[in-house]
Amino acid sequence: MARGRPVILKTRSFDKKGDASKYFAEMLNRYRPGETVSEEDALDLASLLERHPESVEKIGDGIHHFEVQAADYATQCFRVVRLDGTWDKFSYHTCISTEPALVD
Asked: Is 67 helix (H, G, I), strand (E, B) or coil?
């Protein structure tokens, strides 16, 4: 039987992508649009965001905090607020499904 692919972050590890998806879905649903994510959850989100294929652009000059915002079709998503006050939304699904770049 095939095993799922692990998701390894700086802050925690998951045996398979489905476990990571469940964890971040539950996190997202603990908040309402407009709420700031707790410092503890922000550590996991910062580590997760590093896996995003556009992480450099999403993070910019640095992360100030994370929030939850309303999204299409009565859903919600995470957004990163940068040190300069600008922000960008991101999908935890994209972060989980993207294989991290190999560093030389």
From this structure: strand
Structure-token pair, residue 50: 């590093």
Phi, psi values for residue 67, rounded to 5° = -135, 170
Instruction: Provide the whole-model pTM.
Output: 0.90
Per-residue pLDDT of 41-62, as tens digits, reads 999 999 999 999 999 999 999 9
Beta bridge partners of 36: 67
Which 3 state secondary structure label does DSSP give 4? coil
Q: Rounded distance, CA 99 to CA 29, Å? A: 25
- Return the beta strands (E) in 1-104 as ranges: 7-8, 13-14, 63-71, 75-82, 87-90
Class of domain 7-97: alpha beta
Where along the chain do its domains lie? 7-97
